[in-house]
Amino acid sequence: HMATNRLDRKLARFMRLKRGDQTFQQFSEQMGLPASTLHRIEQCKQSVTLGTLEYICGRLQCSLTDIFEK
To answer: Which of 44, 55, 60 is nearest to 8 (CA)?
Structure first.
């Protein structure tokens, strides 16, 4: 459970960084995911499946290691 929380926090930080100064609505359109989902991910209130994580990486053109390496 602690490992999941740590991974959720890393994903949340990465997503905030990638969203930059875009609104959740703008980022939602870019990502093809609901703004509410993106907000919950950034707030560490929603874990994602591996499939969703792979989808996010595809949309952001990054790898899983880009998100979780540090």
So the answer is: 44
Separation between Cα atoms, residue 25 and residue 50, nearest integer Å: 23
pTM: 0.88
Calculate the CA dihedral of residues 53, 56, 58, 63 and round it to 10 degrees.
Answer: -60
Contacts of 19 (CB under 8 A, 6+ apart): 27, 38, 42
For the residues 44-62, what does the mean pLDDT come to?
94
Distance separating alpha carbons of residues 38 and 15, to the nearest angstrom: 8
CB 62 within 8 A of CB 27: no
* Between 26 and 5, the higher pLDDT residue: 26
Q: Which residue has the tokens 């990638």?
A: 18
Backbone angles phi, psi at 59, to 5 degrees: -65, -35
